[in-house]
Design brief:
The complex is a heterodimer of chains A (596) and B (152). In chain A, α2 (34-68) packs parallel to α6 (130-145). Chain A has helices spanning 8-30, 34-68, 75-80, 84-108, 117-123, 130-145, 153-170, 175-194, 197-209, 214-235, 254-284, 289-306, 315-322, 328-347, 355-377, 384-400, 403-414, 420-437, 442-449, 452-460, 464-467, 481-490, 511-514, 523-526, 546-554, 578-586, 589-592, and strands spanning 469-470, 474-476, 495-499, 505-510, 560-564, 572-577. In chain A, 54% of the residues are buried. In chain A, 66% of the residues lie in helices and 5% in strands. Chain A is elongated, with a radius of gyration of 29 Å. Chain A is mainly alpha-helical and 596 residues long. Chain B has 152 residues and is an alpha/beta fold. Chain B has seven helices and five strands. In chain B, strands 1, 2, 3, 4 and 5 form a five-stranded mixed β-sheet that branches. Classes of the chains: A mainly alpha (596), B alpha/beta (152). The interface between A and B is medium-sized, with 29 and 31 residues.
């Protein structure tokens, strides 16, 4: 029979291969690597986190308007215009409403997965319940809108982390990648709250994850930047705190900030002790959470009769300090009452953050230090406002145990480069002083209580089965060359796993091996998958430890290694990527603990 | 594989111009002395057995009178090619036309690129209808090899 009498199926294969010949190199060029996909998802998380943050702000303003008749969330102003009984009643009622929501959450969603973003990133599997998060955010909404002395960043971070968890699960990412996305959500939340993208990424890297590896830091930065850009579309790009330009005339002046760092570092553990003591006392009080939170609100309300500045997260008061609006006795009074109000709100179990209140305390301390220095020595030519700025950073560094984040946070929210040298000095000194007094910062204490150490040992025991991706792309050993090429165009991997007739793992087909022959129509039916299978390919078992994974990757230059069933049946159960293994390693407790 | 390597694979001693068998298995056995004589093949019987198994799992009959039975097997030390011609035709599958040219190929398991290169080259060499006709009419193994290399 002459050669030109080709069968119709052969010509069909030729057509398929011809299409693949052009498609595969193009797809290979365009094909996103896992890092690209992670970055893309981090961007989506940043966008959603920012939208969530904006929605939360608007909802807070709406609830605040219902409660006080004032639309703006400037709590100091709106509370100042209220009658005394209203100042008491509104925070108490808000606390009770927040408590009711928390009670309902507990009753409705028993045995649900972990909700707290820190737990999800550090000790969990990245799964955050959307319903629990929304209900907790609703509780925070009532607390914050009614004047509770607590920060907004808590719910903003929680909402963004929840979106991240949902996005990651919809995209079917691996467990280490899901945890990374939740961390990206948290970074987006902080970035949205403070218009501070670098600080958002650093917050999560330093405090939550405790690592700066580029595998992790890149997506965190990407998410933070997208979140900040999105937020700026709604609330503008101005720095959160407007300050007048600060200048330092002499390098020797910088030494004074070492002293301020010492003071902030020494007082920070006391501040944390007050917060945790309040929390401990409230938690021992055997009354329903509604009553507890109503009392927390009541305490704030009573203090607000004299000083409405104690209400809210402290944003307005902080601006007042940074503009030198108060005389020092007034500031001292508000500072002490604000600490009590924050302790009452935080201690009563309100959902929220203590970031902005901490900034306010630091700024207040710094300002008072500056005034004292001027009064006592009559020498200092530096404005007390400068000390307020440095005190803000130093106190934040000491309280969060994240000096790098604190330095960037103050720089980003003021956008004044002049302060960077004294700021760095103050933050680092405060951090070391605080660390020498107490080992625990604000968040490490929270994580300890949530059982981080118990989960740390689980991370140490992390196995391949915990981080592998299930259902890898496969092809039968009898599949034609054309089918193999088609399958390779459809998946994002350089390797296709081959199964034998009994569905056992038989080896892999490498795109590298066949790339040159994609245009060859003769091979379309002559060659089958089995002919081009590499049998001697490294494999892993679900029980293998991470060290075994790295051992395999050290001798194998591919991106993925197949995982076979532990019962030695040879059944393919998943695959593990080098990037996921590195991520899991970077999130190991040994890595995180290097920060403390 | 470069041109010299390809040329070195084809020698008149590897060509059987008159296969007598009418079935694939019979023809394969006709290759046995030739396979045994080759320095590239480690285990001749095992090699032919592997070729038969491979052919059984998926036929290499192109449907154009040519087949490329092959195996990637440890039974060969380096790539091996032998060619057989049957004037009356060999039956490989009941539903396909008889085969007149058999290209028997063996490659070591690790050399996937070499294997694909060889298959691609041999298939391309006989794609032209004039070459195919000339090969069917070749009088000696030397003529056969000359025709195979004719376009260079």
């Amino acid at each position: 029979m002459p050669p030109e009498a080709e069968s119709s199926s052969a010509s069909l294969d030729t057509v398929r291969l011809r299409r693949i010949r052009w498609l595969l190199p193009l797809l290979e060029w365009l094909r996103p690597k896992e890092l690209h996909i992670t970055l893309f998802l981090a961007g989506v998380v940043g966008l959603l986190g920012a939208l969530g943050a904006v929605a939360f702000r608007k909802a807070s303003e709406a609830v605040h308007w219902v409660l006080t008749g004032h639309w703006s969330l400037n709590l100091t102003e709106s509370f100042a215009q209220l009658a005394g009984w209203q100042r008491i009643l509104i925070p108490a009622a808000g606390g009770a409403a927040a408590g009711l929501v928390l009670m309902a959450t507990t009753r409705l969603l028993k045995n649900k997965p972990t909700t707290d973003y820190m737990e999800a990133v550090v000790i969990g599997d990245g799964v955050i319940s959307a319903r629990q998060s929304l209900l907790k955010s609703l509780s925070a909404l009532f607390t914050i809108s009614s004047g509770g002395a607590i920060g907004r960043e808590g719910p903003l971070v929680q909402i963004a982390a929840m979106f991240a968890s949902v996005v990651g699960r919809l995209a079917h990412v691996s467990k280490p990648r899901l945890r990374l996305l939740v961390a990206c959500g948290a970074a987006a939340g902080i970035a949205s709250a403070y218009n501070a993208p670098v600080s958002g990424a650093l917050f999560v890297a330093e405090i939550v994850l405790g690592t700066m590896s580029m595998e992790i830091f890149g997506p965190l930065v990407f998410s933070s930047v997208i979140a900040t850009l999105t937020t700026r579309q709604f609330i503008g790009s101005e720095p959160v705190y407007q300050i007048t330009h600060i200048s330092f005339s002499s390098p020797s002046q910088v030494i004074i900030f070492v002293l301020l760092g010492c003071i902030c570092g020494s007082l920070s553990p006391l501040y944390l002790w007050v917060l945790h003591t309040a929390e401990s006392r409230f938690s021992k009080w055997t009354v329903p959470v509604v009553v507890r939170m109503a009392v927390g609100g009541l305490i704030v309300g009573i203090l607000a009769i004299w000083y409405p500045q104690v209400c809210g997260n402290g944003y307005t008061s902080l601006n007042a300090v940074l503009h030198g609006e108060w005389l020092w006795p007034t500031l001292l009074c508000i500072l002490l009452l604000k600490i009590i109000a924050t302790a009452a709100t935080f201690g009563s179990g309100a959902v929220g953050g203590v970031f902005t209140p901490t900034l306010f305390v630091g700024a207040g301390l710094g300002y008072l230090f500056g005034v004292a220095l001027q009064t006592i020595t009559h020498l200092s030519s530096i404005e007390p406002i400068a000390f307020a700025l440095i005190g803000m950073g130093a106190f934040l560094a000491a309280s969060t145990r994240a000096p790098l984040m604190a330095i960037w946070m103050i720089f980003e929210i003021t956008l004044d480069y002049e302060i960077i040298l004294p700021l760095m000095l103050g933050c680092v000194v405060a951090y070391y002083i605080a660390r020498s007094i107490s080992a625990q910062g604000i968040y490490s204490e929270a994580l300890r209580r949530k059982g981080r150490w118990q989960f740390d040992s689980e991370l140490r025991r992390m196995r391949v089965g915990d981080i592998m991706k299930k259902d890898p792309p496969t092809v039968g050993g009898s599949a034609s060359f054309a089918e193999v090429c088609e399958k390779l165009t459809a998946v994002r991997h350089n390797y296709l796993y081959v199964l034998d007739d009994a569905q056992r793992f038989a080896g892999v087909i490498s795109l590298h091996d066949i790339k040159r022959f994609l245009s060859d129509p003769d091979l379309a039916r002559l060659v089958i998958a089995r002919d081009i299978t590499r049998e001697n390919f490294p494999t892993l078992l679900p029980d293998n430890h991470l060290s075994t994974v790295f051992e395999r990757f050290a001798r194998h230059d591919g991106e993925r290694i197949p995982v076979l069933n532990g019962d030695h049946s040879g059944r393919l159960v998943g695959s593990i990527s080098k990037a996921d293994a590195l991520l899991a390693f970077a999130e190991q407790p040994e890595m995180r603990n290097t920060k403390t | 594989m470069n041109v010299e390597e390809k040329d070195s694979l084809l020698s008149p001693s590897c060509v059987l111009l008159n296969l007598k068998g009418s079935h694939f298995t019979e023809c394969l056995q006709e290759f046995l002395p030739l396979v045994k004589a080759s320095a590239s093949v480690i285990e001749a019987d095992k090699f032919l057995q592997d070729v038969q198994e491979r052919e059984h799992s998926s036929s290499t009959n192109t449907g154009r009178g040519i087949a490329f039975p092959h195996a990637r097997t440890h039974a060969v030390g380096k790539i091996f090619v032998a060619i057989g011609r049957s004037i009356q035709g060999i039956s490989l599958q009941s539903d396909t036309p008889p085969v007149h040219l058999l290209f028997l190929i063996g490659t070591p398991p690790g050399e996937i690129a070499t294997y694909l290169d060889c298959m691609s080259w041999l298939a391309a060499s006989v794609r032209n209808v004039n070459v195919y006709t000339a090969l069917l009419e070749a009088q000696t193994p030397e003529d056969f090899i000359t025709i195979m290399q004719g376009d260079r």
